[in-house]
Design a protein that fits this description.
Order of helices and strands: HEHHE
Number of helices: 3
Shape: elongated
Oligomer: single chain
Number of strands: 2
Structural class: mainly alpha
Strand content: under 5%
Length: 116
């Protein structure tokens, strides 16, 4: 979708910004479980907010040609399967931050800055 009030140069810059912003999700995803790093700092936990934003961004990325539909589906399924097979209920619960290399037995509630 183009914005009528944007010049061609502005539209190209907007397209580039969108594509490069989406690259964050491709770089920070754990392909084994679909979790997304909360920030680019090494060993930083994933966040439920980043995971949710990635899940919302995948269909847009497909529509814009940033990734294929099958790649988006694989990433989405990895994420959903991870949460489906993880412990459910009020405890221990998912805090806003989750270890990015988490398996079903290593989730933790986050404290300050995601530390255990």
């Amino acid at each position: 979708m183009t914005l009528p009030e944007c010049s061609i140069h502005q539209q190209e810059m907007l397209d580039l910004l969108q594509k490069e912003s989406f690259q964050y999700f491709l770089y920070e995803v754990n392909p084994a479980n679909g979790l997304i790093g909360d920030k680019t700092k090494p060993d930083w936990p994933s966040s439920i907010a980043a995971v949710g934003l990635a899940l919302a961004a995948y269909p847009v990325a497909v529509e814009r040609g940033f990734i294929s539909r099958s790649e988006a589906a694989a990433k989405t399924l990895a994420t959903l399967r991870f949460f489906r097979h993880s412990a459910q209920g009020p405890e221990p619960g998912y805090g806003p931050l989750i270890r990015g290399d988490a398996d079903r037995g290593s989730l933790f509630r986050s404290g300050a800055r995601g530390r255990k």
